[in-house]
Amino acid sequence: MTRDEAKLKLVAGGHILAAEGQGDLTRGHISVRLPDDASRFYMKPHSFGFDEMTVDNLVTCDLEGEKVEGWAPRHSEVYIHSEIYKRRPEITSIIHTHPTYSVAFSATGRPMLALSQPSALFVNNYGVYTGSIDLIRSQDMGRGVAEALESFPVVFLKNHGVVVCGTSIEESVIIALMLENACQIHMIAEAAGETASEFPSQDVMALRKKLLSPEQQTVNFNYLSRKLDRRR
Ligand SMILES: [Zn+2]
Fold first, then answer.
1. How many angstroms separate the CA atoms of 93 and 166, rounded?
2. Long-range contacts (CB closer than 8 Å, 24 or more residues apart) made by 130-134
3. How far away, in angstroms, is 196 Cα from ligand 1 center?
4. Average pLDDT of the chain?
5. Neighbouring-strand partners of residue 166
6. Residue 51's closest CA among 75, 95, 20, 81?
7. 3-state class (DSSP) for residue 52
């Protein structure tokens, strides 16, 4: 992948997140490592919505969270990205959003159960950051989030939002959408009362493997891109 291709895909990822309801005013961000330089990443600019991302307004940051290129302002929460990229060399794309059901789920403090297909991805497979309800505006706080993430793909920022990590933009975007779907079903099912017994954990793990296939992420990401194109 070239730098230009990575920028285009990042913009597409941002537009998909907006179209699928992950936006919260101008809050939230998505980033991707430069394909030929793991010490830098492209990121959505501050003061713009996900749907306003363009190849031109992306900012480039380094692993200290400093902006090294771009005219647009940098998100103060850049440290979520820089500290995770520092700790997790295999991660190439990170998303932070405030989706309604995911935030509500984080506020319950209850564990994720296998109540739906997307939840199979997350049962016993996420961290929880409880350090603050505030913005993650320092390297120290970013480090706290990266530590809470451990080696999981997802960390809930309690009463605040989610951070989703992937080995591609397709993966981080699709997992972020599946996480919100899992949390929505979880909240509805638990609000309805006691939930019935779950399927055996080996069944849940077998489903997880299928849901994690990179082909699936690409097929679904491309579908959501075409859906956006049809709306334009
Ligand atoms: Zn936030």
1. 5
2. 130/158, 133/158, 133/159, 133/160, 134/160
3. 34
4. 95
5. 93
6. 20
7. helix
For residue 164, the CA-to-ligand 1 centroid distance in Å is 12
CA of 136 to the centre of ligand 1 (A): 7
What is the distance in A from the centroid of ligand 1 to the CA of 97? 6
CA 223 / ligand 1 centre spacing (Å): 27
- Per the CB < 8 A criterion, the answer to whether 85 and 94 are in contact is yes
What is the spatial distance between Cα 221 and Cα 87, in angstroms, rounded to a whole number? 27
Q: What angle do CA 137, 139, 162 make, to 5 degrees?
A: 60
Domains in the chain (CATH in brackets) are 3-217 (3.40.225.10)
- Residue 89 C-alpha to ligand 1 middle, in angstroms? 23
Residue whose C-alpha is closest to residue 31's, from 19, 154, 20, 74? 74
Condensed to tens digits (0 to 9), the pLDDT of residues 49-97 reads 999 999 999 999 999 999 999 999 999 999 999 999 999 999 999 999 9
3-state SS, residue 91: coil
Could you tell me which of 137, 132, 228, 120 has the C-alpha nearest to residue 182?
120
Q: Give Cα 83 to chain centroid, integer Å.
A: 15
pLDDT band at 134 (very low <50, low <70, confident <90, very high): confident
Q: How far is the CA of 160 from the centre of ligand 1 (A)?
A: 6
pLDDT per position as a tens digit, 150-174: 999 999 999 999 999 999 999 999 9
